[in-house]
Amino acid sequence: MSKLIFERSVKNRRGITLPEFDCPEVILDHEYARSSSPRLAQVAEVDVVRHYMELSRYAFGVDNGFYPLGSCTMKYNPKLNETTAALEGFNSIHPTQDPSTVKGAMSLLSNLSTSLCEITGMDGFTLQPSAGAHGEFTGLLLIHAYHSDRKDLKRTKVIVPDSAHGTNPASANMAGYTIINVPSNELGGVDVEALKGVLSDEVAALMLTNPNTLGLFDPNIEEIAALVHKAGGLLYYDGANLNAIMGEVRPGDMGFDVVHLNLHKTFSTPHGGGGPGSGPVGVKKHLMPYLPKGTIIDEHFVENEKTIGRVRSYYGNFLVNVRAYTYILSLGSNGLKEASEMAVLNANYMMSQLKEAFTVAYPGPCMHEFVLSLQDLKDKTGISAKDICKGLLDYKVHPPTMYFPLIVHEALMIEPTETESKETMDEFIKILLELKDKAYSDPDYLKNAPYTTPIKRVDDVLAARHPILKAEM
User: Fold this and answer.
1) Count of domains observed in the chain
2) Which of 207, 216, 290, 309 is the most buried (most CB within 10 A)?
3) pTM
4) pLDDT at 1
């Protein structure tokens, strides 16, 4: 690793010269003043620039190379979106300005909400939530408000499939619900008979991703929706995988009552490392009275009497919404549909090229992603999915999602997205096949990979339990 910025520090070295102080000097009261000077690195401008340039080379993003991170939809982000988000009229406004002074922004947010309604089949949207999991929590608060308003207080349970994203049960738990797990059937969809067995008048909702984390569209979705509604529950759509179905089918038409979207994924904003994100929540008419304060409808803020209140300061991550609206306008309805078709085509192509060398967890046509099981490879060579992923790093490729979903042993979840070319996918396929051969011919090599990264293998448990988040001075 290179030196930290503090290790580059040289006493009395400067990166900037401040103009002569021409304001009256004010001495702070002792209780407000520091007892010692701040520990700032003393470096020249060139040192600062080189430091951050070096750090940037350590980070991997979709602009660096292939990023097939299943379920995260790390598609390429068009630079047109960045140009629009950088317009002064968007990035220089203040959230406390009077709405009459930001009519362009209000119009954009209103039009975005309308577009998302058309894409998902919902009747109303709030753009406040900051990310997908935040959207999940908001959606569950809306469901809770709906049942509470109807005095149906016995509904304390939320059903979550065993293939769900981990945020689903976490969000439901945060909203005060007890989690019921329902298994998958042999085809990877929800086990309908098992679902019937857990449905009751105590169930508030079923949380579902369709297509799910196995990359499979559940053909029983209409029956599932009917069963949940007959039991008095609501159907929640985890929109993490919307990239597979835009323009083809809408969650609202499947029977879903609530949907959250990951604008930073499906609608193209660079993300990772904690942000930026945006997780709008859409609802059918019977849930609109409960939408958060600050919801925009027809370019006006709407304050419903039954609102769940504000779920975020101000109105959400505005510039992520600008990027998403730019993406929608630039592609149009036909372009969004084509994007999904290409995402599905790319995933099926890759799966077809890898199915002879690796075990496909659930064979058959997939949607935007697919899951391999490397259990057989591990049994024969001792090389795990993690070892293969570490080997990929030396090829300057970001590994797929590993060990998820949990119902697949030694899982690799691969999502090429629609933005990758056949040449890029062929190169990735070639690398995976080379690594498989290496597992048989030289397993120790893979057990010690990677060799070319600044940091080699770390203790995953130690890093998670005791992360080092700051430098010791």
Assistant:
1) 2
2) 207
3) 0.92
4) 57
